[in-house]
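Input.
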Amino acid sequence: MTNDLLSIQEQLAKVALQREAERLAAHEQAMRDLSEARSKEDARQAAAKEAAREAEEKATKRKAEAKEAEDARLRAEADARRLAEQEENKKQAALDEFIAMKEHIKRRMDEMERAEEQAKRELRDAINMSMATPEDIPPHPLAKFLQKEPM
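Output.
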């Protein structure tokens, strides 16, 4: 019986060693699986961080591009307004110059009309004087003095 006990004990020890070896192998496999899972999770997190960083960069770039486009649009509108104002100023200056020229021409025409009226009056007076008889012409104040004979 001792033999049987020893053999059972040996078998139990073998089974215990085998179970311990299986448990250690399973533990090692679990540790390898855990390590692999951790490295996969780390890689996934790194990829997620990289994707988030890239998305943030793209969003920042889109915002910068949108701001730049808005700034360009505002500059273009300001340039268009400035050009329109300059064109309006040019038109106003040309209109003011035209009005000033028109007023100058009107003044010159008025002067010419007055000169024409004056010339007509002088011509009429000259014609009337040439047609007038000596009796119609008032005598010169010195004429009487010069006609008298000395005493």
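The CA atoms of residues 66 and 72 lie 10 Å apart.
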